[in-house]
Design a protein that fits this description.
The protein has 425 residues and is an alpha/beta fold. It has three domains: 64 residues, Archaeosine Trna-guanine Transglycosylase, Chain: A, domain 4 (Roll); 123 residues, RNA methyltransferase domain (HRMD) like (Transcription Regulator spoIIAA); 189 residues, Rossmann fold. It is 28% helix and 29% strand. The chain has eleven helices and 21 strands. The strands form four sheets. It has a seven-stranded mixed beta sheet, sandwiched between helices. A six-stranded mixed beta sheet has the order 2-6-5-4-1-3. It has a six-stranded mixed beta sheet with strand order 7-8-9-10-11-12. α2 packs across α4, α9 runs parallel beside α10 and α10 packs across α11. The longest helix has 18 residues. The termini are far apart.
Length: 425
């Protein structure tokens, strides 16, 4: 690996960014992002991708952060204190994040270890799948420290009793579109390690073979995903607790739309739904649903259908099909603010169709993962869909991402997932 080395190890004078009053107010409100427009000036020696001291307009100390001039987001704040940002600091942050997850999910073999800003490590996302890690870096300054970050992840895992054999694979899923905002290249790399050692060897055979892993949720189901080819970092770990919660509402025939690898479908089938139709548009995802159903002895209760979700819902309504449970877990329809209006129409169309398909007394589990659609707007979408269908809807639960994806107060970007459980009267 050759990602360069972090600049500025506190030798000599520390580079400093002086914030405007507006920038200081934003930081004091709890948000770690400092934009170019929030910075009044930089000290003379302030190299790109360096650790900088952060001060207010009158020189008052505000903290330290990672500076990068590749985009308008210049500084990601790491601390409001005066501690040094070095290898020891990063190790402590990684250890603290891991201990929290191990304590709340002692039986799960897959969870998010680091959730970026919410864990005080902005731009870094690490998902654990049994003995493999899937990693995304969205900050150019943090990427300059990547050698150290990868070594620390393996080292910290080796110090934790939860890992019997250490970490075997590290997958850099640096293919997120958000990387372009910091002029970072999109790529996927896989490194192998000898378990508890820190020597990483890059694999060159990932194009054809991928990296399939089998892991267990914190229930009695196991899943298989591909860390190289799968969506996001391989799977949607933020929904695991919602998958389990859906068991409370399992009854009669169910329809799971945008099923991906069958998280909701398998839990509903395990808990008592008589028949679950699992709908996905991709061949690979459909194959994985079938494999997961077989592995969990549920193939006789799950029917996999390859179809466009909008078309399938419309056709089922025309055929007068009805279900006791309908799940909608679409990908983000509003990945940027400019597409918000069309996304709102799409979410309304999906939920309107779902409401028509649910029997009276049945349940809709409807999700929205777009950070540009807040909870208030999502409620309005559902209310408009209910009005158009003439159905009366009860809200049973309003849930978000699992506890391994915590929300940081003052940072609305960390509260992106909405998972509402509704009852049709």
């Amino acid at each position: 690996m050759n990602y360069g080395k972090a600049r500025n190890e506190f030798r000599g004078a520390e580079p400093v960014a002086f914030l405007s009053s507006r920038g200081m107010a934003r930081l004091l409100s709890g948000h770690p992002w400092i934009f170019k427009s929030d910075v009044m000036r930089l000290s003379k020696d302030c190299p790109d991708k360096s650790i900088v001291g952060i001060r207010g307009p009158n020189g008052q100390w505000l903290g330290r952060g990672l500076y990068s001039n590749a985009s308008d987001l210049w500084i990601r704040t790491l601390t409001r204190g005066r501690e040094r940002i070095d290898r020891t600091w990063f190790m402590g942050m990684l250890e603290r994040a891991l201990v929290y997850r191990v304590n709340i999910f002692p039986r799960g073999s897959a969870f998010r270890w680091v959730h970026g800003e919410a864990d005080g490590l902005p731009g870094l996302f690490v998902d654990l799948y049994k003995d493999s890690l899937s990693i995304q870096v969205l900050s150019s300054a943090l990427e300059s420290m990547l050698d150290m970050i990868l070594e620390l992840l393996v080292e910290v895992a080796g110090k934790t009793e939860w890992f019997e054999n250490g970490i075997k694979n590290l997958v850099l899923r640096n293919d997120a579109s958000a990387r372009k905002h910091e002029s970072l290249q999109k790529d996927i790399k896989v490194f192998e390690t000898n378990g508890f050692g820190c020597k990483l060897e890059e694999r060159t055979d990932i194009e054809g073979a991928g990296l399939p892993v089998t892991y267990g949720e914190w229930n009695d189901l196991v899943f298989t995903t591909d860390l190289v080819r799968g969506q996001k970092t391989g799977d949607f770990l933020d929904q695991q607790e919602n998958h389990l919660e859906s068991r409370k509402y399992a009854m009669g025939p169910a329809l799971d739309v945008f099923s991906y690898h069958g998280g909701f479908a398998l839990n509903l089938a395990r808990a008592g739904s008589s028949r679950v139709t699992s709908v996905e548009a991709g061949d690979d995802a459909c194959a994985v649903i079938g494999m997961n159903a077989e592995r969990n002895s549920l193939a006789d209760r799950i029917k996999v259908v390859k179809a466009n979700a909008f078309d399938y819902l419309r056709d089922r309504d025309a055929s007068n099909d009805r279900y006791q449970v309908v799940v909608l877990d679409p990908p983000s329809l509003a990945k940027k603010k400019s597409s918000l209006d069309s996304a709102l129409r799409g979410y309304k169309e999906l939920n309107l169709r779902a409401m028509k398909l649910v029997e009276r007394g049945g349940v809709i589990i409807t999700c929205c993962c777009s950070p540009h659609v807040n909870a208030f707007e999502f409620d309005n979408i559902l209310s408009a869909a209910a009005a158009d269908t003439g159905r009366t809807i009860q809200v049973l639960e309003k849930r978000g991402a699992g506890r391994d994806h915590p929300v940081r107060l003052g940072v609305p970007e960390t509260e992106y997932l909405k998972c509402w459980f509704l009852r049709v009267l």
